[in-house]
Target: Cobalt-zinc-cadmium resistance protein
Amino acid sequence: MTVSFAQKKRLAYYEGYISIIINLVLFLLKFLVGRKVNSVAMVADAWHTLSDCLTSIIVVVGFWMASRPADSRHAFGHGRSESIASIIIGTLLAVVGFSFLYESVVKLIQRQGMGFSELAVIIFAVSAVMKEGLAQFAFWTARKTGAGSLRADAWHHRSDAVASVLIVAGVLFSQKLWWLDGVLGIGVSLLILHASYDIIRSSASYLMGEAPSEEKVDRVHSQVRKEFPQLDGIHHVHVHQYGDHHEVTAHLTVPGTMSVDEAHNIASRIEEIVEQEFNGDATVHVEPEKSGKDED
Model:
């Protein structure tokens, strides 16, 4: 089922607002408990959780920008704002990954174990469950909307959930396996960096004008050949995507003896076919077949 942009925007807002609220709650829990047990690391993690609100704010702002109508400076709207938000969040995710990697290596070099109170362990366990819940919700909204920024935010939530799990594991097994936290941390950081790379690469490719899927173009070609078997079909198909809106151009070769009126009617019908497939506006340029004399 096709999801309208209004529905995508609503889902993105839900994800963003829920993330902000839960992160604020977790910040207060970690900060208050960290102060109570006098844990500098826990207080620092509390501030990190508060900073996670930034990525959710970027998601909301990105979709708000994308929903703005076209204007004199942006004739095709602001649909690509969401992809810009994806790159920003992907970059922040990369920072988290490199920071996580650095801290994990330092722990191994310095043979650092973990030491937290029982209350702190409970808070981190609760944090892991809540953050993974946020990640699952964000991944679900990303699948429903196809939004890279939501997928990036989901990975950001998951990185926090995994970090909390590692802290709990480090506390529970620190006496026997002091290296566990560092080794697992390196593995997770590499996973986060890979996700960051994938998010930035796909969003950047989209912004630079990624070609449409061959499957869609083939469907258009098949429909055109079916309705107009006397023609060679269309070529030079170019698709420019702006969020949910597409601008499509194509060339149509017709016999030189065909009347302008007939060629125009065929081009108009092909534009309808293209617009139905790509959900946007299409322009078909008509050009005559070159005769043998012209080719000479």
Summary: The longest strand covers residues 245-254. The chain has a mean pLDDT of 79. The radius of gyration is 26 Å. The chain has ten helices and three strands.
